Amino acid sequence: MATLGAVVVGILLTVSVWLLFTKPKASIPAGTKPLPGPKGWPLVGNLLDVPPQHSWLKFKEWADEFGPIYQINILGKKHVIISTEKIAKDLFSDRGSIYSDREVTPMASTLVGGGMTFVLLPFGDRLKRWRKFVHQQVGGIAANKYRPVQIFESKRLLYDLIREPENYENWVQRFSAGFSIRVGFGKATETGQESYILTLIDILRELERCASPGAYLVDSLPILMYLPEWLAPFKKEGRRQQERERKFYLELQSEVLDQITKGIAPPSFSRTFLENQDKYDLTYIEGAHVLGSMYEAGAGTVAAAVLSAILAMCHYPEWLRKMQDEVDRVIGDNRMPNFDDIPNLPLIRAFYKETLRWRPVTAGGVPHRLMKDDVYEGYFIPEGANVHGNIWAVHREKELYPDPETFNPDRWLMPEYPTYREPLTVYPNIQGYSAFGFGRRQCPGIVVAENSLFIEIACIAWGCDITLKKDADGGDIPVPLYDYVPGFNTQPNKFPFCLKARSKKKEQIIAEAWIESKANGSDILS
Questions:
Q1: Where do the annotations place heme binding (predicted)?
Q2: Alpha helix positions (H), 387-426
C-alpha cells in the first residue's frame, strides 16, 4: 500500500511539473486582446467548473455572461466557445483552411478509435481520402438512390409503432440502424434486436460516451498516456473497445467479400468499395472503418432527432394537429406519404428543422483545432486552441431565433421571422444547417439524413395520433421537457405517451403497405 501511495504521489508531482512547464505563455501579440471568460482555479483552470454531462448548458450560461465568443482554460489548454451563427461562419467556413483540424484526444481518438473514427480524424491525407469516398456515396443526388430502403423502413416503422407503441425507442432506432446496415453492408434487419444491430448500437454508444467532454481525465492530462496499463485502467478499456470495433467491422466486410466471390452480394457501400478498392485509394482496413463510421454517424443522429420530434409532439400537440391538417390536405387518406410530396409539405420540413434547433443532437458540437494563431475582431486565438461551436447556444441566439426556448416551426415559414426563406417548395430544409456541424467538417450525409427525417415525420403525422398518458385519476402524466441521456450525441430518456392509428382505414392501409413491401422485398437497392 505504501509503495502504491508513493507511486501516486510521484504521478501527481510529475503532472504538476508538466503543467508548470507546458502552461502557455500569458503574453499575446501587440495590438490584440485576450478573449474574456470565467476565472479559473490555480493549475486546473476551469476543469472543475465544466460539468461532466451536458456541458453545453454551462457553456450557454457563460455566453450570456461573457459574450458570444469567450475562452476557458482546462489544465493549461485553451478552449474557445462560439455561440452565434455569424462567428461560426466567419471562423469555420470563411477561415476553414485553419479551422478544420481535430484534436487527437487520447481516449476517443487514439485508444478507442485507433485513428480510424471519421468524425474525429485530424486534418490530413486520411481525412481527405475518406471524405471523398463518403461524398461519392451519400453526397448530393447520390443520396436519393437509397430512398427505396427508407420507404421500406418507414412502412415497417409505422406498422410496428401502432402495434407496439410502448416499444417506440426500438422501432425508431431500428429504422436508422436497419437502414444504415442495409446500405452499408447489405444486411437485412427484422426486429432490431439482431446481435449485429445490438453490437453496432453498443459500439456507437461507447464511442459517444468516450468522446464526451470531461469523460476521461487523460483527455485533459495526456501525460497519463505514459502510465503502464496496470496503473491506467482507461488504457485497457480503450484497447478492448478498439479491438472489438475493428474485429466487428472487418467481419462485416469479410462477409460481403465472401458474398462477392459467390456472386450473391446485394448492393451496398461495402460491395462498392471492395469492387473498386483501387479507385477509392483506401486500404482494406480503412474501408471497414470508414463504412463503420458512416453507420455510426447515420444511425445515432437521425434516431435521436426523431425521438426528440415525438417529445415535441407531446409538449406541443397543436403542431402535430397542424401537420396532420397539411398531410390530409396534400395526401388524403388513401395512401402513405412518399418523397414526391416533399415540395408540398413545408410544415413537415419546418417541424423537423425546428426539432433540430430546439433539441440539437450533437448539442455541444465537435471542437475544431486551430492550426495557426489567429485574430478575430481584435481577439487573439492561439494555435492549438480547441474551438467549440456550441450548437445549443447558436440555436438560441435571440436575434436569429426570437423566443428561442419556444418550439415554433412558424419561424421557418412566416416572413416576419429572420429565418424565413422562399420558395416554400424548397425551404425550409436542413442543407448546410448548423445542427450538422460547421464548415469543412460538416456532416457529408445531410441529404440522406433529411430524407429519413422527412419520411419518418410525414408518416407519423399522417398515420398516428399522439397524446399524453393518463394517471388513475384521469389527469395527464407529465413528460419531462429536458431529460436527456448524457453523451456526445444525446436523445431523450424514455417517456410515457399514447400512440394509436388515426383511423381504422389508415391502420389498414399501413398494414397492407407493410405486408406488400415485406413480400416484395422492396428494400432492395437499385
A1: 443
A2: 391-394
Cα–Cα–Cα angle for 43, 44, 45, nearest 5°? Answer: 95
Cβ pair 444, 138 in contact under 8 A: yes
What angle is formed at CA 218 by the lines to CA 53 and CA 69, rounded to 5 degrees? Answer: 55
What's 426's domain CATH number? 1.10.630.10
- In tens, the pLDDT along 360-399 reads 999 999 999 999 999 999 999 999 999 999 999 999 999 9
139 in a structural domain:
yes
How much is the average pLDDT of 289-315? 90
Residue 110, pLDDT score: 94
**C-alpha angle 277/245/187, rounded to 5°?**
60
The set of residues, in sequence order, having a beta carbon less than 8 Å from that of 233 and lying 6+ positions away, is: none
Within-domain flag for 85:
no
Grid cell for residue 431: 442543407
87 lies in a domain?
no
CA distance 344 to 210: 42
Q: Cell digits for 34?
A: 485576450
User: Is 464 labelled as part of a ligand binding site?
Assistant: no
The DSSP secondary-structure symbol of 41 reads B
Smallest Cα–Cα separation from 240: which of 144, 114, 403?
A: 114
- Asked whether the CA dihedral 159, 160, 164, 167 is positive or negative, the reply is negative
pLDDT, one tens digit per residue, over 398-456 is 999 999 999 999 999 999 999 999 999 999 999 999 999 999 999 999 999 999 999 99
pLDDT-derived band at 526 (thresholds 50, 70, 90) equals low
pTM for the model stands at 0.93
Q: Which range (216-220, 255-259, 329-333, 520-524) has the least confidence? A: 520-524
492 located within any domain = yes
The helix (H) or strand (E) run that includes residue 272 is helix 269-275
Burial of 31 (0-12, 13-18, 19+ CB in 10 A): exposed
Q: How confident is the model at residue 1 (pLDDT cuts 50, 70, 90)?
A: very low
Residue ranges of alpha helices (H) inside 359-487 are 391-394, 446-463
Structural domain tally of the chain?
A: 1
The pairing of strands 386-389 and 77-82 is parallel
Q: Is 395 helix (H, G, I), strand (E, B) or coil?
A: coil
Give residue 445's Cα distance to chain centre: 11
- Asked if residue 386 lies in contact with residue 78, where contact means CB atoms within 8 angstroms, the answer is yes
Nearest partner of 71 among 376, 400, 440, 371, judged by Cα:
376
Angle at 310 between CA 167 and CA 321, to 5 degrees: 125
Angle (nearest 5°) at CA 14 between 12 and 15: 65
| Separation CA 241–CA 243 (nearest Å) | 5
Separation between Cα atoms, residue 88 and residue 83, nearest integer Å: 8
CA angle (307, 308, 309) in 5-degree steps: 90
Domain that holds residue 271: 98-360+395-520
Phi, psi values for residue 102, rounded to 5°: -125, 145
